[in-house]
Amino acid sequence: MTPASQTASAESKDEAALARHIGTLASDAFEGRRPGTPGEAKTLSYLAREWQSIGLRSGTNDPANPWFAPVRLNLAKPEVSTANFRRNRRYVEVCEDEVRIFTSGLRGLTSDARVLFVGQTAEFPAGALAGRVAVMLADHAGSLEQRQALFDGGAVAVLSVVADKPALAQIAEMRNEGAYRLDGEGEDRLDGFVSAGAMARIVGPERWRRWQSAAKSPGFRPQQTGATVTLEAVSAPADVLTHNLIARLPGKDPEKGAVLVLAHWDHFGICAPQSPTDQICNGAIDNASGLAVLTELARKLASGPPLERDVYFLATTAEEWGLLGARAFLRDPPVPLDTIVAAFNLDTVAGAPRDAPVAVIGKGMTPLDDVIASLIVKAGRQPGNDDFASEYLKRQDGWALLQGGVPAVMVTSAFGDSAVLRDYIDQHYHSPSDEAEGLELGGAAQDLLLHEALVRHFADPDQWPVATGD
């Protein structure tokens, strides 16, 4: 057998192993892996069994909670939603199925606030948003970051425009299960969704057509709608106990620091309870695929030559609700954060074919770049579109770690080609159609081998002699 055929055979075995994990974790029996549900217990039990059989040890460093680090969340489940728009002192009829309002606390209310259409704009002069309800377009890659920027700028509420009533109903159905936040953290916020048809009546059909078109062009300036709105939302409170799973592969000299590899285990659970066909968001690509690569990476590292530094494996909870598990890890890390020399996040790994280009999310934000670039070349891979990949920087757990001072990146072929990722986002992202059947795993299998090389390099103090714990 030639070296090339040996490599292909090994990658095919890796693909089969990844497919096995994804098929299990994204099966209906796991009910979409929502925190605080039976699906969580099944997910964490499966991963813990796999990791223990590989030879990993508990990484919590907490005898009272081995393997499973508790994360307490507050759940706000929607009960009341009202929105009353006025323009030129007259009420504008907006039906209940055209607008939905949510609050992250128990009750949110704003009265007669002016409505500002911001399109896709996220930067404003100081005070420009104060007391305003900002209306943004929801169908662009940076919409989550824009929403945060609007709140940070002083908006009292943010409404996202969706295409039509069915689209709004789908979002509302998912949000009706409630939203999480870390216990004791977070501001009470008022947000919601409104249909494009309702906006056309609120501002006038012709103006709305012009604004929608202009908002996607560079240089668009926010528009005063002339409308005001009174919004109210009420939620029922609940507490949820969920868990991060933390394991450790001991190194020969853990005093030299540690490498961290992570993937979020959670998804949206039974996200479409009224659907007559498929009610479960199984999250095969997002993120059973990341868990699969994380598990097989642990297997390869544990079965190979011993490493000098410890390697920690982290499966985070509640990533989909604001990187909450990663933020909880930062609150109570099993090792001092400044001893983590490198962290690699695995998220939405599947989808790219073999030999797809590799992008680095977080490029330019850590000292890891040059080594990563050289190892990508050494693996025979091509660099991908880092500028496109960077649009997703704040939407993955690595961003939370960066905020905590941990050098974290995502090295991935799934984000290396915009066409591959956009096809997934347009058709399957956060929907019941993200299923395990027929996934393309060629790129994921190669990313697995690349991460083995990355972890081995950064786990070797002779190759990466950084000072830790100073």
Describe the structure.
It is a single chain. This protein is of the alpha/beta class and 470 residues long. It folds into two domains: 3-66 and 250-458, Aminopeptidase, CATH 3.40.630.10; 76-237, Glucose Oxidase, domain 1, CATH 3.50.30. The protein is built from 13 helices and 17 strands. α1 (3-25) crosses α7 (284-303), α1 packs across α13 (442-458) and α7 packs across α13. The model has no long low-confidence stretch (mean pLDDT 94).
Q: How many strand units?
A: 17
User: Class of the largest domain in CATH?
Assistant: Alpha Beta
Give helix and strand order, one letter per element, not per position. Answer: HHEEEEEEHEHEEHHEEEEHEHEEHHHEHH
CATH topology of the largest domain: Aminopeptidase
Taking all residues together, what is the mean pLDDT? 94
- Name the CATH homologous superfamily of the largest domain: Zn peptidases
Total separate domains: 2
Cα distance, first to last residue? 50 Å
Helices, by number, come to 13
Low-confidence runs of at least 5 consecutive residues: none
Shape: globular
The major β-sheet equals: 15 strands, mixed
The Rg value, from CA coordinates, equals 23 Å
